[in-house]
Each structure stands twice: as C-alpha cells, then as structure tokens.
TrEMBL record, chain A:
Species: Taklimakanibacter albus
Highest taxon listed in the record's lineage: Bacteria
Listed name of the protein: ABC transporter permease subunit
From TrEMBL, chain B:
Keywords: ATP-binding, Nucleotide-binding
This protein's record includes keyword Nucleotide-binding: yes
The protein's name in its UniProt record: Sn-glycerol-3-phosphate ABC transporter ATP-binding protein UgpC
C-alpha cells in the first residue's frame, strides 16, 4: 500500500516521541535520585543530572532491605507462579479442547468464573483457606454430621501459601484454549494415525507448537506475580524469612509519620533493584512474547 | 495382504444419518476411489475405516478381523490428509519418522528407513527442512512418505490433491498411480474430481447422499452408468439426459416436443411404454442436417474439439463437434445419434436391463469420420 501523508507522518512521529519521553521521565528521575547523596537529593529543586553516589546507594539499599534474602523469595514465588500457571493452563486447556466428556462445559464455566473473581475480591475466604487448606473439606464433612476431624494444614508463612492462590486463575487457560482451537484437527488425527496417544500428542506436538504462547504467558505471569503486594502482605508475618521484594521496598520508602529521615536516594536505589528482574525477563522474552500474542504461523 | 469388507455400514450424527448402510468388498491390492460431491458421505466412510469416526451400525473387517472397536493405530491403516497435516515444528525427517519413533524404533534404524522412503519420493535433499519451507507438491510428498514408512496394510487418501494447482495435480496423480503399482498396497482414495477417479481407480465407488450408486471399473461406469445420477456425474461433460415417452413396439422414444429417437430394440427388450429418461454422450452425436434438431445456444472451445450447447424440448444438451460450425445463437443445431449409443433409464433413475452386450463396449480404433461441416444457414 502506498500512502503519502507527510504532515500526518510528522505529527504522529512527534506525538510518539513526546509520549516516549513522558514515559521515560519517571524512570530518569528514579535513576537520578538514586545516584545522589542524602543532601543533594533533598535540595529543592532536585538536580536532573546523575550524581556520583549510585553504587554506594545501591550497596546501602541492598544491605538495609535485606535484599539478598527477599529477592530470592520473590524469585521463588514469581518463578513458582509462572511455572505452575503454565502447567495448569496447558493441561486444563488440553482437557477442555481435546476431550469430550460430561460436565466439560461445566468445568469450562467454572474456570471462566474465576476470571470474574480475582484474588482481591475473594481475599478473606482465600485467606481462611490458606490458614487451613483442609477447612472447606472439614466443613463439608461436618455438614453431613460425620465425626471425622481432618488435620490442620496451615499455608501461612510458606512458599506454597504465597504461590498456590496466585496460580489458580483462568487467564492462562484461556490463552491456551484459544491457541489449541487454532491447531487444525487433522494434526491430532495424523498423530492418532501415527500411533501417538493423548499424552504423546500433548508433549510432542502441542507443547512444542505453543512455545511462543508459553513465553508470552511466562512474561505476563512473572511480572504480575513479582508485583503482587496485597497477598504476600497478608500471608507473611514472618518478615525475616518470607518477605517479598515488593513488601520490603515499602519499608524503605521514608514515611513522614515516624520522623524518619527522608532517604529518597536509598529508596530509589531499592526501587531500581526491585525493578530489575521483571524488566530483564520482559526484555529476554520480548521477541517471543509479541509473537505469542499474535496469530501463530501455521 | 487382506481384503477389506464393509458390511451394512451406517453413521449418524445425533438423529441425522449420513451413511445409510453401505456394503463393499475391497480386494487385496485394489485401488478403490470413492467419488461423489461434497456431503455425500465419502470422507466419513474413509474416516470410519481409519478409525477416526465411530461406527453407528454395521461392520468393518480388515482381513478376518473386525476392527470396529480397534484404535486407529491398531488397524494398520495410514492416511494422507487433504491439507497434509504435517507437524509444523518438525523437520521432514522427523515428520516421516514420527510413527516409527512412537513405535519405539531406534534412531539408527529410523534414519535408514526415512532415507529410503525419502529417496523413493525424491525428498532426500529436503530432509532437514521444516514443512513451511516446502512447496505444496513437496508437502504432499512428505505426507505420502509419512504414510508409506509404516508399511500399512491399507492406504487411505482423503482428497489429497485438491490443494494443489492443476499441473501439479496431474503430476501427483501419476506418482500416486506409480506408487501403487510398485507397492501394491490396497488403497482407498476419496475425491470429488471424476477425472482423478477415472485415471486412478481399479474400481470407482460413486456415492450420493450416503448411498452407493454404482461400483465398477472406470470404463464400466462411463459406458454403462447404473443410474441417471452416475450418468450425469461421470464424464466431462456429463451425459445428456432428456425425459421421453417410450414406444417399445416401434423401438422409438418421443421427446416432449414431438421429435423421436430410435433405440436398439434387440438390446432393450424390457422397456415398458411410458415415461422414461433417455441419455447420450456429447461425443457420440454426429452433426448432420436433417433428422433430429436442437436450438443452438453457444459453444465452448476445447482445442481439440468444440462443445456445442443447445436446447431440445426445453432441456439443455451438449454435443461435440470437431470443426468450427459457424452457427449463431438461435440457429437450428441438427445432429444424429446411432441407436446403440442411447442409454435408457426408468423414471426412478435406474438403468433398464439390457440383453446381449453386457461387457464394456470396445472402443473402435477406426479413425473418426471426417468432421461434418454444416452449411451456413
């Protein structure tokens, strides 16, 4: 297609450039603030060029925030959620798309409903379940008046308590379902003729075909679970061992109430630390990510 | 190698029956073509043999074994799909060898077999390419290789050539025929293209709305169509069919506009007086003034001949002419048909019983008569 609209082109490019700069300014300010010492960062107005205390600030922030430990925690949680999501999503979508069984549509709608009930909405009951994972079953048993007491299974202050409730959502299932629906039926039939059973077809044909899909889901889920704040705050009381990076970051932000010194340089340095992993993951998987969200090559 | 027996096979989707009790015996090594328009149940039948569709009623046996309840992999069939259904993420080598890998064959053995099959199909140079880097014909060959490597008892082809362009289709047709001659594997081939059916088949099975209309050798279905449906479907163009009233006493049929055609009384002895359908092929009509006449409409140029379209008693007819006639639309189009070239069908569409020459009429090798040029009116 040939289009000759030089004025419009110029305008759209200027607009893009302006938006790009506007988008980058906050990051620049965070970086500049993180590179000055305590006195410079509190000058009014704050300088807009980087100072020379960047590495010093980073070291202090890393030390004060116990980031060696909490970054590891966050990595475990985000990695666990991502992995769990991909496995769960691929398996559930495989079941819904490729098998005909009773209650298939019921299952589908049950999964669908979780889209409308995000964690924030059902946070109190979810917390109750996390406090004793067998409690729903205990309630059901009690309902029938059977005198069996299940043991208490507490997920608070544990990685499973941090990970499992975040895994059980439907977005991934939907992404996979849409992808599986675009895979031609003949492929499944060809695999059947070749003698491959369902598991083989899933592992050797469907999963390799959905690699881009997987990368897209991994990126979204990693960033999403890394940024989780409310749920870890609720589940974790043992901050020494199970705090996540986002929780820890909050503690380094100087609050006005307690008369703490306004150490914005340290807070911003911590910000950069917490920011790094999701940015890295996005950059690494970006090429796949974009392809996975578009229609895949056949 | 076993023969395949289909006995009273039925298939329903819910209450909608799409295959109504089909019975067919396929001899060992035979090349059978299932021919019919889309929706006639031919693909369903093939998929039932493959084991991809359940069987509502009836029985499929491969050799002595009833395979109704067997999974596709246990039946010893290999299938070539219309859109090839190659695994996009695997190379040609992996695609062809996948069934062997599933069967647990060692890598070394697999390599030998894959290279052998690829060699016979001319794919040796493409073994490490992905399907997306191949042309349509090459993909088709990979699909055939994938079927061949399993050394199946039965080959199933589901409209394998319909995604190819016309030239490639002819070339692949030849290759499929050669492959069958070399391997001698029993083959079931589904198509809606009657040229494919005529050129490939040992026997053609013509299907219509879930029923078999006729089973026969290509020449047989062409020269002795069992029903008006087959007569119209086979041949290019299909047979001309005109409603008429038979007079067995004099051996003529009378069309709605009063024109008459004589038929071979010694051959068609059981014609009852009354409504019948009379048929003749476009190429048996001889353009000749006098006698039978149609109204000329237009001509189609075939290169070797022309197809002249006309109207008789409100029905369109097509006759073949070798030379240019110089006719204009609306002119009379006179032609004659030898009595033995007429086909007679009952009002139900069934061909009447014939006496005498039951075997396929031999084509004469005498040179065709010189084209008749009509005087320009």
């Amino acid at each position: 297609m040939i289009e000759r609209t030089p004025l419009l082109d110029l305008f759209t490019h200027l607009l893009l450039l302006a938006s790009f700069v506007a988008l980058l300014i906050p990051f620049w300010i965070v970086f500049v603030a993180a590179s000055h010492d305590f006195h410079t960062v509190n000058q009014v107005p704050m300088p807009l060029w980087p100072g020379d205390s960047f590495f010093e600030n980073m070291a202090v922030a890393w030390e004060r925030g116990n980031f060696g430990r909490v970054m590891l925690n966050s990595l475990i949680v985000a990695g666990g959620v991502t992995l769990g999501k991909i496995v769960l999503a691929a398996l559930s979508a495989f079941s819904i798309v490729y098998f005909k069984y009773r209650l298939r549509m019921v299952m589908f709608w049950l999964i669908f409903i979780t889209l409308m009930l995000p964690l924030e909405v059902r946070i109190v009951p979810t917390y109750a379940v996390a406090a004793d994972a067998l409690r729903p079953f205990q309630s059901m048993i009690d309902l029938f008046g059977i005198g069996i007491n299940l043991p208490e299974w507490n997920l608070l202050n544990s990685y499973s308590g941090l990970i499992l409730p975040l895994v059980a959502t439907a977005t991934g299932t939907f992404l996979y379902r849409q992808f599986f629906l675009t895979v031609p039926d003949e492929l499944a039939e060809a695999a059947k003729m070749d003698g491959a059973g369902a598991v083989r077809f899933f592992l050797e044909v469907l999963l390799p075909l959905s690699r881009t899909n997987m990368a897209a889901l991994a990126t979204i889920m990693f960033v999403w679970s890394w940024n989780q704040y409310l749920w870890p705050l609720l589940v974790v009381t043992d901050h020494q061992n199970f705090a996540t990076a986002t929780m820890q970051l909050q503690k380094l932000i100087p609050g006005p109430l307690f008369g703490e010194p306004p150490v914005w340089n340290i807070a911003m340095a911590a910000n950069l630390i917490v920011l790094a992993p999701p940015v890295l993951v996005t950059i690494l998987l970006q090429r796949w990510f974009v392809r996975g969200l578009m229609v895949t090559e056949k | 190698m076993p023969k395949v027996t289909l006995t009273n096979l039925r298939k329903s989707y819910g209450r909608n029956e799409v295959v109504h009790g089909v019975s067919l015996t396929i001899e060992h090594g035979e090349f059978i073509v299932l021919l019919g328009p889309s929706g006639c149940g031919k693909s369903t039948l093939l998929r039932m043999v493959a084991g991809l569709e359940g069987i509502t009623a009836g029985e499929i046996a491969i050799g002595p074994t009833v395979v109704n309840k067997l999974e596709p992999r246990e039946r010893g069939c290999a299938m070539v799909f219309q859109n090839y259904a190659l695994y996009p993420h695997m190379t040609v080598r992996q695609n062809i060898g996948y069934s062997l890998k599933v069967a647990g064959m060692s890598r070394a053995e697999r390599t030998v077999k894959v290279e052998e099959v690829a060699g016979t199909l001319g794919l040796s140079d493409f073994l490490d390419r992905k399907p997306s880097q191949l042309s349509g014909g090459q993909r088709q060959r990979v699909a055939m290789g994938r079927a061949m490597i399993r050394e199946p008892k039965i080959f199933l082809y589901d409209e394998p050539l319909s995604n190819l362009d016309a030239q490639l289709r002819v070339a692949m047709r030849v290759e499929i025929r050669k492959l069958h001659q070399r391997l001698g594997t029993t083959t079931l081939f589904v198509t809606h293209d009657q040229v494919e059916a005529m050129t490939l088949a040992d026997r053609i099975v013509i299907m219509n709305k879930g029923n078999i209309e006729q089973v026969g050798k290509p020449a047989e279905v062409y020269h002795r169509p069992a029903t008006t449906y087959v007569a119209r479907f086979i041949g290019n163009p299909g047979m001309n069919l005109l409603p008429a009233v038979a007079d067995p006493g004099t051996g003529i049929v009378r069309l709605a506009d009063g024109q008459v055609l004589a038929y071979d009384k010694s051959r068609w002895r059981d014609i009852a007086p009354g409504e019948i359908t009379v048929g003749f092929r476009a190429e048996v009509a001889r353009l000749a003034p006098g006698g039978f006449s149609a109204r000329y409409d237009f001509a189609e140029e075939l290169g070797s001949a022309q197809l002249l379209h006309g109207t008789v008693a409100g029905k369109s007819v097509t006759v073949q002419s070798v030379g240019n006639t110089g006719l204009r639309p609306g002119d009379p189009l006179p032609f004659a048909i030898a009595p033995h070239e007429l086909h007679l069908f009952a009002a139900s569409g069934q061909r009447f019983a014939e006496q005498g020459r039951v075997e396929t009429p031999a084509r004469s090798f005498t040179p065709a008569p010189a084209p008749t040029y009509l005087p320009v009116a």
